[in-house]
Specification:
Layout: H1 2-36, H2 40-47, H3 51-54, H4 58-70, H5 74-87, H6 92-104, H7 108-120, H8 125-145, E1 148-160, E2 172-174, E3 177-181, E4 189-203, E5 208-221, E6 229-242, E7 245-258, E8 261-276, E9 281-293, E10 302-315, E11 321-334, E12 344-357, E13 361-377, E14 384-399, E15 404-417, E16 424-437
Antiparallel strand pairs: 1-4, 1-16, 2-3, 4-5, 5-6, 6-7, 7-8, 8-9, 9-10, 10-11, 11-12, 12-13, 13-14, 14-15, 15-16
Helix pairs in contact: 1-2, 1-4, 2-4, 4-5, 4-6, 5-6, 6-7, 7-8
Length: 438
């Protein structure tokens, strides 16, 4: 009788132990499913109350660490992953996740060491690609606050439905000048563009840095060489950083050419304030003053003033996902007397975003709208000119490796104007190959 009771006791004890183990495994499985469903906060709420009881279990600590990091509890996530690495120093996913946590905490040096440690272990291709993205972001962050130089070269080939940006009509009539003017129709053509640039930053102290950049670009059309364009743009200034704020003042200049002839020169100043609100949000505001000169067309010489602001947001739960919204307004005023057909007030909106698809692709989409009200009628027309310009673009960047990117793109412009010669549509299809020097 006593032996039977003892066996029953052991059986019951074993049953409850097995049931507890099953419940624990069910808890971990539930946490995995929540993390896979991008419900990190729910997974963290499930696991956090069990930390004191289950700390030291490799799988529990790993899942808790990932859930904590994705929920913004970075320090607690690091502690959990450190327990994993204390038992399993060769745990590649734990090391990659703790590197991500250090990255989000701004611990650049430690994050780089951990990412490079994982990469030396030759992880799967998709993991290596993700690590490269983080290393690129680290380099960009370090350049933004330290001393460094970066550059790029890019070649683009494509097709332009309106290389001359001419009117969509085959001809138009001047109301004040009887007769018909032809040869203003849009001119479709194939094109090739070559571009290159360099940017640099020299840190004078922890809070002050000199900044500069320069870009050169040349586009050649297959048939319409009279519409070939080229430009050289340069800027240089100083940046002041204080906590979450950065203030930048820079001088800017550009020479723009059409068919190798100087078409427009621009020189001016820009001041910008940028503030990091959180790990995922940033706002900025700017004021720009530019002096425009048109060699051989002095009537168009003008001073342009634009002020604007923008907000940018990144989505931590989705790879390479971000969006932005910007608004601006300003005025371009001709310097010559009684030249109202080029002077205008303007305002506009820009928005866009990007999202990672797999480990290699990044999809980008942008849209902008600008409204321009001119001070008088364009030459020969009765009504004061009004333009409403819409621009849309979509591109998909494929990262061959850290430095090479292939990007197919489509860009559309629709400039609605009450003046026929400035009313046009344009679509460009292109394929670019870019190499970044870091």
């Amino acid at each position: 009788m006593q032996a039977g009771s003892g066996l029953r006791f052991v059986a019951i004890a074993l049953f409850w132990i097995a049931a507890a183990a099953f419940a624990q495994d069910a808890t971990l499985e539930r946490a995995r499913k929540l993390l896979d469903a991008k419900q990190a906060k729910e997974a963290y709420a499930l696991l956090a109350p069990l930390e004191q009881q289950r700390a030291g279990e490799v799988e529990f600590d790993f899942l808790l660490g990932v859930a904590a990091i994705d929920s913004g509890e970075l320090t607690r996530g690091v502690f959990a992953l450190e327990r994993v690495l204390a038992v399993r120093p060769d745990h590649p996913r734990a090391r990659a996740e703790i590197a991500r946590a250090y990255f989000l905490m701004g611990e650049n040096k430690t994050a780089r060491q951990e990412f490079e440690s994982v990469k030396r272990a030759r992880p799967p291709t998709e993991v290596a690609a993700t690590i490269d993205k983080f290393l690129d972001a680290l380099e960009a962050r370090e350049r933004a606050r330290g001393t460094g130089v970066a550059g790029f070269v890019e070649a683009t080939a494509g097709y332009d439905t309106n290389a001359s940006a001419g009117t969509s009509s085959s001809g138009f009539a001047f109301p004040l000048n009887p007769g018909f003017v032809g040869n203003a129709a849009k001119d479709a053509d194939y094109f090739v563009t070559l571009a290159g640039g360099v940017s640099g930053r020299y840190a004078m102290s922890d809070t002050v840095a000199l900044i500069g950049n320069a870009v050169v670009e040349q586009r050649g059309n297959a048939s319409s060489s009279q519409f070939d364009t080229g430009s050289f743009t340069a800027a240089g200034g100083i940046a002041f950083t204080r906590d979450a704020d950065e203030f930048t003042v820079a001088a800017q200049g550009q020479n723009f050419y059409v068919d190798t002839n100087r078409f427009r020169d621009a020189a001016g100043l820009v001041g910008q304030w940028r503030r990091t609100l959180s790990q995922n949000d940033q706002v900025s505001a700017y004021l720009q003053r530019t002096r425009l000169s048109y060699p051989g067309q002095s009537a168009r010489d003008a001073n342009r003033t634009v002020a604007g602001g923008a907000w940018a947001h990144s989505y931590a739960a989705v790879r390479a996902a971000a969006s932005f919204l910007g608004v601006y307004a300003g005025q371009e005023e001709t310097r010559g007397p009684n030249v109202l057909d080029y002077s205008h007030d303007l305002w506009g909106v820009r928005l866009g975003g990007q999202i990672g698809i797999g480990e290699k692709w990044t999809l980008l989409a942008n849209a902008s709208y600008e409204n321009r009200r001119y001070g008088g009628p364009f030459a020969g027309f009765v009504q004061s000119r009004r333009d409403k310009e819409l621009k849309l673009s979509v591109s998909a960047g494929y990262a061959v490796d850290r430095n090479w990117t292939i990007t197919p793109a489509i860009a559309y412009t629709d400039n609605r104007s009450n003046t026929p010669i400035t009313d046009y549509e344009r679509t460009m299809f292109s394929l670019s190959l870019r190499h970044d020097f870091r």
